[in-house]
Amino acid sequence: xxxxxxxxxxxxxxPWKLVETVxxxxxxxxxxxxxxxxxxxxxxRGAHWAAADAELPGSFINGFHETWDIKHAENAYGFxxxxxxxxxxxxxxxxxxxxDGEMLTLEESTVLDYRRSVDFATGIYECRxxxxxxxxxxxTTTERRAVGxxxxxxxxxxLEVSADRDISADVTSAVxxxxxxPVEDHSSHDxxxxxxxxxxxLLPVRLDGGDGSLRLSWxxxxxxxxxxxxxxxxxxxxxxxxxxxxxxxxxxxxxxLAVGADTPFVLEKSVSYAVARSADEDPVDTAERGLLPVGxxxxxxxxxxxxxxxxxxxxxxxxxxxxxxxxxxxxQLAQATACADVAGIPAKGVSGSGxxxxxxxxxxxxxLPYLTYTSPGNARQVLEFRHDLLPEARVRAKxxxxxxxxxxxxxxxxxxxxxxxxxxxxxxHIAAAVAFATNRYAWASGDTEFKQxxxxxxxxxxxxxxxxxxxxxKDGLFHIHGVTGPDEYTxxxxxxxxxxxxxxxxxxxxxxxxxxxxxDAERELWEQAANRMQLPFDEDLQVYSQDNDFMTLEPxxxxxxxxxxxxxxxxxxxVIYRHQVLKQADxxxxxxxxxxxxxxxxxxxxxxxxxxITTGDSTLSACVQGIMAAEVGYGKAALDHFIHxxxxxxxxxxxxxxDGVHIASTGGVxxxxxxxxxxxxxxGEVPYFDPRLPTEWDSLSxxxxxxxxxxxxxxxxxxxxxxxxxxxxLEVDVRGHRATVGAETLALPLHAVMSPEPTVFPDGxxxxxxxxxxxxx
Length: 777
Hints:
Blueprint: E1 13-14, E2 17-20, H1 28-34, E3 37-38, E4 42-44, E5 59-61, E6 65-69, E7 82-86, E8 91-99, E9 102-103, E10 110-119, E11 125-132, E12 138-147, E13 154-163, E14 167-176, E15 202-210, E16 213-220, E17 226-235, E18 243-245, E19 250-259, E20 265-275, H2 283-289, H3 294-312, E21 315-317, H4 320-337, H5 362-374, H6 376-388, H7 390-399, H8 430-445, H9 448-452, H10 454-469, E22 471-472, E23 478-479, H11 497-511, H12 520-531, E24 537-538, E25 543-544, E26 554-555, H13 573-577, E27 579-580, H14 587-593, H15 600-610, H16 621-631, H17 635-646, H18 663-677, E28 680-681, E29 688-689, E30 699-706, E31 709-715, E32 719-726, E33 730-734, E34 737-741, E35 746-749
């Protein structure tokens, strides 16, 4: 059942906020995700201080993790050896409020009024609750929290307590170590969810406190990463702490005071985290230097989002119901990436522990388009992070008997952490994702220094991997065997079309470099491999095959009940692998990314064949299906897929939003709007637009940062308007019409090209009995 959209009385539609007006039991963990705040480095889940039903409260720092030795039941050479898991850092978002002897809780106390929100325009979380206390007093508590941006390790929290009469208040502010658990948690068989280590993981190094200040540090038991924390408190009345307690699991500062009817009590909590960069650094000292007044942290957040929305907002005309959801997704993108620095972007950002905090290909294929065109400096930093991991990637390549560099399928520290190689290591296509993102960034930004140095390294090392992984067969074609493509329901196959198409791109991009590290023989090998790449094609169906054997597989039984989806949780992998069924877009994704390599008819026939047999069990799928539905002219299918992608987390349609925001899907929402409905395609001679605005929408507008400038795009059903608001004029292509865009708005007429419904390819498998929008729960 939908969460947000099914109860608009509880979650009113505000275009600039996510708002909750009633607290109800259930869905606490999902709402902790939806109301989280973060900056890409530090994330705080949206748990209530006054709720006993919190499910997964906590805080995270990108890259702060524990390691362990992976135990394989049956071992083999080259299997992943080192597990990695993001850690819950000691959580400062905790208060206990006792009024006239009554502890205020949402479960036990009387609530007269309740409203909490996260403001997209400022990044500030606020929760205001009016309580009717047993003593007769009416008390209002207002909590606000935000993370810093110039000081990315900072968190500011304010708690105000006011009353309609004089009261006695007992307020405790705590730091809780939520990571250490008495037993190991592997209760879920869902591989998307994170487990928890047993016992003591965070070993205390320094535990100091007094006069309302806390200075704390811990070391992760195995990874030996050091985390420092500094906490200061300030009160409006200058009240001194009644007590300060320091412990490795629960440190607290307590205030006991009388609160007058006309004098609210305000407690401000300034928090600073720091991860040591070297063994001889005291992270507490670093954290202490980062402490800021709470008001300054709020101001940093407000300033960041004021600038962010100026160039990153996307406005859909005539659709107020969708505008809130669009901005929530864009807000999550900012929260996951803004201050990541030279680091990866976890699949859940810093909003939860899902997927163990690992970095996947998601960041290159689904997040880098957004970053490249809205914050190119951040895009470069993500690619610098990949470049920093080249030494480990070269070692991994040797373990897999290939040359060049092979990036791990999932990792934090650069080592492969995927224990199931068929859906992990076998996804060699991550190398092409890194190369593709590298090429896109260089193309869109005009950053020639990057292209000639770090970018060249990434393109060359990945091309070397492909050249050694594949081989020229007896047919004279270049084949790549024993790989898994994006569709993880078809594993370890020969000549996966997506892999081969993307490897071809990678080889050609590297061969085109003017670089002294490439000799003539190597360049010739790359060009020949690319030009003779095997692309499986079914002559009878006239459709590109997902791999050499896909068309021979048994069709999936589409009468399978919805309770059996996602399939990976209900069927053995071998059952799924021998059937024609997709977890997510694969061949269709290749045709989107390498748009120039396929004809419109080839794309349409592929969409007609694959869309009905794609379950959408992956949150990465709906956005791609929608983009290609728009391109081939299927307006209703495009909008259906887009709306499914838009509400994946807000309505928890995949049942695991509790573990954090699906950040790649939020990136896909950006691409759906810009590449799907506005029809942007890149990496050609010039930016190309082929707009496909849904008939239900009045308009669509956004900005793109291109070649050091800023391009404004505005689209309605009759006209595409382009304006360069900063920088030099740009040449663009709109449906084959070349034009130069400058500071004066260029208006280009459009014609409707969308058809109402997709047509199922007549000789293909039967249409799936499940709808286009496939909710899993």
